[in-house]
Write a structure and sequence with these properties.
- Belongs to the KdsC family.
- This is 3-deoxy-D-manno-octulosonate 8-phosphate phosphatase KdsC.
- It is a single chain.
- This protein is 39% helix and 15% strand.
- By secondary structure, the chain is α/β, with parallel strands linked by helices.
- Strand 4, helix 3 and strand 5 form a beta-alpha-beta unit.
- The longest helix is centred in the N-terminal third of the chain and has 12 residues.
- It is globular and about 50 Å long.
Amino acid sequence: MQYLSNLPANVLARAAKIRLAAFDVDGTLTDGRLWYSESGHETKVFHVHDGLGLKRLQANGIQVAIVSARISHPVALRAEELNIAHVYQGQNDKRECLRQMLEALNLQPEQAAFVGDDLPDLPAMDLAGFAVAVANAHPWVTQRAHWQTSLGGGMGAVREVCDLILHAQGKSAAEQEHWR
């Protein structure tokens, strides 16, 4: 996994502290495109690698959250499938949403990661101790991120973040052994 080699010490230090990993949806968990059927139903495509990464974070004691400005039934379905308890849709102020989660979970900002791709994600990224931009994020987002994935949103970027957090916390070997 090339994206886990030669990581800066400050990135590893930030990722090692994470107890809550929060993710934007459109452009982060998906490729950002909105699909509508002829009948007006919205569909979304999620990457299976991202899903397993999120499940592995949870299995290793890290809370996972979804924070989206939009409201989408496919997001609720995917979150339910992955047993994600912290699902916040219709959040126009993602920073405040993250702040309230931190308070409810009795965590400090440096214990949170926020992964995003576009301007509405910036306030939450600024609050989080570990701000991550996906590869195809808006340039203003990448400028303020602590780390950027090599893959784009909806194309395995979330899995990279999950793997990095587990790696930084010294859990990669146990994860590999889990699958033997």
